[in-house]
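[Q] Does anyone have a clean structure-token version of this?
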Amino acid sequence: MNKRIAVCFGLLLPLLFPYSLPAQNFPAREGYDYEGKAVTALLPFIGDEESAAAFNRAVAQAVANLAKYSCRVVTAETVGAAGVKIPTDMPPVRELIPGARYAITGGVYPGSYEGEYYLQLWLWDVTGSTMIYTDDLVYRNIEAGLEDLPGLVDWLFSHIVERTVVAEPEVKKAWDDKLIYAGLRSGASSHWYTAPEEIVPGAHSLNYEGGIFISARFNSLISLQAEIDFIWDDLVYRGIKNTSSGGHGTTYSPVLENERYRSFSLLFPVLFKLNFRPGIFRLAPYGGLFAVAPLGKTLYRANPVEEEDSFSRSNPTPLGLTVGFEIATRLGPGIILADIRYSGDFGKTTINNAAETSYKRGMASFTLGYALGFIDIKK
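[A] Here you go.
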């Protein structure tokens, strides 16, 4: 009864206490043993049986004495059962040495002089079925040959070059543009307005700017970009006006008044860009011209009298200059970009009111955008 309890407890013990079992060691990779040593298969030597067997045993011991290698002896019976010829100066049949990283073949042969013999050894790389090195040991008596053998084995293995693969840090590579990009951008634009009689701008405003664009690449450096941008202008003149009240005892009090002219326009910039690609970014200074097209009339509003009206406007030279800088990088299927630019009118814009209010406009804008690329360029 006690024996049955002991057997049952022995069977349940690994289930109840799984972490008490000794850890199992497994080879880290093929061709290496549990201690991380490269497995070297030693095949039977050909030649005089007694001498060949003695040298074979000595080579096995010499390999075992090396720190980085372990020896696996392949017997003559194994070779005979496989029905293959014992190899010497040819790569060994891999079916004979499964799991081996290296292999040694050899043979004992008569020397050039009477009473002289030599042992020829070949060291093979099993992975590529290539010879690493071969050399021989000349001897007249086997005792002297066995004494010199460890030096020959060490000499053969010194020709093994083990390549260590070092994981290189990931480097963000420069990227090539697509042939065509199309996208949109949006942001803020600061406008300032200078009347013909003014030296410095007399009014300014902060407005919205946004639009669509398409760019085509000529080569790795130069591209051409065309845009359609929507902008608006708020030209505001502020002043203080004295108002009177009462009869003979008239009093005057200052009142803040302003006049606002709001206009909407489309810009059509055509820009030449220079593209530089340091790492993951594309840096692009650019410059070009733009044309202006008015959208509707200029809306007029005066306070505090709450006067409203609308006027047409004209520009004999509806052109201007744009210069700027763009930085872009990949994001998702396309690129994200940031753009800063200056634009200025060549001619003055005139509002066709009674005073023929006119101004020349300057604009500084910052926008963010996103674009998708089309058509890969083959190198």
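[Q] Thanks! Anything notable?
[A] The longest strand covers residues 222-245.
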